[in-house]
What does this fold into?
Amino acid sequence: MAERSHAVISGGGVGGLTAALALARAGLRVTVFERAEDFGDVGAGLQLAPNATRRLRALGLLERVERHGLAVDQARLRRARDGADLVRAPLGAIAELRWGAPYLVIHRADLLGVLVAACEAEPAIELRRGVAVGGFAVASGGVEVATRRGDELGRVNADVLIAADGLRSAQRERFGFGLGDAPVWSGRVAWRALAPSGAVPEFARKYETGLWLGPRAHLVHYPLRNGELINIVAITEDGWRGADASDLWDAAGDKDAIARGFERWHPDARALIAAAPEWRRWPVFDRAPTRRWTAPQGAARVALLGDAAHPMTPFLAQGAAQAIEDASALGDAFARLGGDIGATLAAYESARAARAAKVVLASRRQGGIYHMGFPLAVARDLTLARLSPEAMLSRLDWLYSV
Ligand SMILES: Cc1cc2nc3c(=O)[nH]c(=O)nc-3n(C[C@H](O)[C@H](O)[C@H](O)COP(=O)(O)OP(=O)(O)OC[C@H]3O[C@@H](n4cnc5c(N)ncnc54)[C@H](O)[C@@H]3O)c2cc1C
It folds into this structure.
């Protein structure tokens, strides 16, 4: 029997772990290197849109994900100033019918837990915690991957390297041919918090994704873990300025300063913000979309995946969903063409790059729409208020039906 191809994945986030499963299902042997001592993420929620849950179902993971996730009843958009409803659209009852898969919200650590357990149950996958990928060299017939655990250096030979190492992907920088664009700060900061449901006002305990729109700011909330926790994200246009976010990433926020930014908002929104026990800061970045996801040209052995390929602002809640789409497309390409790695990676790139670029740009635009001030916001709110739920849902078909 021919030996299985060996894939090394740099990064064990949602993208890397889902890719490991997709590649194992396509018949590859996979090693995932995660530089952190464990696979995980400090408290935050994720919306998993139908384009993501459809692929999790195809990988046999949806039932387990549904055990931890919640199918929210509706999305509700409100105006910050007076709390007026701008539009409500059903989600839970219609997602499966309309888009062929559920719309879920889930604690990110729970999703990662499902993915890690599935990887650990798969004999073709080896998970290596606390080991960073330090670089790679493409050689004839393969790629040599350099690893680092503390002072201990290592080398692993593989047929293909998948760089799923996030927004500040070191492997992407090593591509070194025209991808030198840096991540771009969107001018916004996402303040993230988790509050016990007992501490928040009643409206925020409902099984819905709430979205409040105000000038130069918006607020998102939804329940997690059977409604025991409420995920709150307050996005503002201040609180951070600078070129390098690394030292400010996930820093604590000042409760009073954040609350002051919302003091002209409706009392419901202010009460929710006041209920957050602590805030963590996430400066929001994206990057100009690139059509080139593979390296080097002609003898491709390395490909980007997830935020490493297409970091995006969170305003469409699609970053992880697009990483899951990538993973699934990569698995499909290997299942069809795997004998020829160059052709496989080219097929993966052409299946994914244009769609991901479209989502990156749509997400940028969405941020601009959410943060409009007077008078544009008046026109936006009138348009939204006139939208029927059906018209609102149909705007999402291109994104969720794929
Ligand atoms: C405020 C906010 C809200 C969001 N909400 C949503 C949402 O509702 N829905 C949604 O779909 N998306 C959402 N996103 C986006 C989503 O979080 C990301 O797009 C997603 O986590 C990307 O996954 P990834 O696996 O590509 O990268 P990451 O999650 O960044 O994982 C990369 C991994 O690689 C590891 N790593 C890095 N370098 C190395 C190395 N050299 N060697 C080994 N390992 C390495 C890191 O430790 C990390 O574990 C949101 C983002 C933000 C900021």
Observations:
- The chain has two domains: 6-70+84-183+287-368, 185-285+369-381.
- The longest strand covers residues 184-196.
- The chain has a mean pLDDT of 92.
